Amino acid sequence: GLNPLLSHWGMIIHPPVLYLGFVGFVIPYAFAIAALITRQTGDLWIRTTRRWSLTAWLFLSLGLLLGGWWAYDVLGWGGYWGWDPVENASLVPWLIATPFLHSVIMQENRGMLKRWNMGLIMLTFLLVIWGTFTTRSGIVSSVHSFAQSAIGPLFFGFIVVMFVTSFILFVLRWDDLSSDNELDSLLSRESFFLLNNLVFIGLAFIIWWGTNFPLFSEALTGERIVVGPPFFEKTTGPLWAAIVLLM
After folding, report:
1. Within 138-222, where are the H helices?
2. Distance CA 57, CA 91 (A)
3. In this structure, are residues 48 and 31 in contact, taking their beta carbons and an 8 Å threshold?
4. How far apart are CA 26 and CA 22, in angstroms?
5. DSSP letters for 92-146
6. How far apart are CA 122 and CA 10, in angstroms?
7. How far apart are CA 246 and CA 137, in angstroms?
8. pLDDT digits (tens, 9 = 90+) for 106-135
């Protein structure tokens, strides 16, 4: 029968909402790749996919909030976030998509951050696929391991193909993605947008690294070392504070 932890009305909403958030980012990614292939590296692809990006981000945000509420209400963690690997797999793409939504404004208004925006949407999509791989393959232990499938190797192969393809296109079109304008001042709004991007990316990298550290440690030493909430709280705390200050 159904796992008792899933017998909750929040579980009727949480998975499909999170799924819509994940799937929604396929659209801006596809348009970005098409822009690179056709050398139309202006802001047309951004304007065309604005609603898709906002909608996907909104559903991903709601999915994270519903998941936190379910964890507090059902799992009894005593909190809304436990730094579980599957939780983190959903948070990391959100941390990349959020600065993307902000920096596209700079590209539309000032013709800046073209390379940033292209790289951010690529990374968002790749992290969505990685999150799906983490959830479905069972390569990391998680309280979310309600079901697993044998699709893990196929997902990993898909990740490799998408990463290599995106990276090659990005490098080939590097010159085409040059910005029309440069930063005027270190104290300008554009500079703070860029700093905001860097902080978000730093957060995403730390959380991704800590989540997947057991895989790296096992590959290098043969011992699976799991980092827990203290690691994430200690390393991400200053960066969360920096985001609040920037806001």
Report:
1. 152-172, 189-221
2. 11
3. yes
4. 8
5. HHHHHHHHHHHHHHHHHHHS--HHHHHHHHHHHHHHHHHHHHHHHH--S--TT-S
6. 31
7. 37
8. 888 877 788 899 999 999 999 999 888 887
Question: What pTM did the predictor assign?
Answer: 0.88
Cα–Cα dist 98/187, whole Å: 22
φ, ψ of residue 189 in degrees (nearest 5)? -65, -35
Question: 129-145, pLDDT tens digit by residue?
Answer: 988 888 777 676 655 55
Q: Which residue has the tokens 């596809």?
A: 30
Asked whether the predicted pLDDT for residue 146 surpasses 60, the reply is: no
Q: N- to C-terminal Cα distance for the chain?
A: 47
Give pLDDT tens digits for 160-192.
999 999 999 999 999 888 877 776 667 777 778
Report how far residue 31's alpha carbon sits from residue 76's, in angstroms, rounded to the nearest whole number: 42
d(CA 124, CA 185): 29
Residue type, 28: P
Burial of 237 (0-12, 13-18, 19+ CB in 10 A): exposed
pLDDT at 83: 86
Backbone region of residue 186 per phi and psi (left: phi > 0; alpha: psi in -120 to 50; beta: other values)? alpha
* In the block, residue with structure tokens 């999170």: 18
Cα dihedral across residues 61, 62, 64, 69: positive or negative: positive
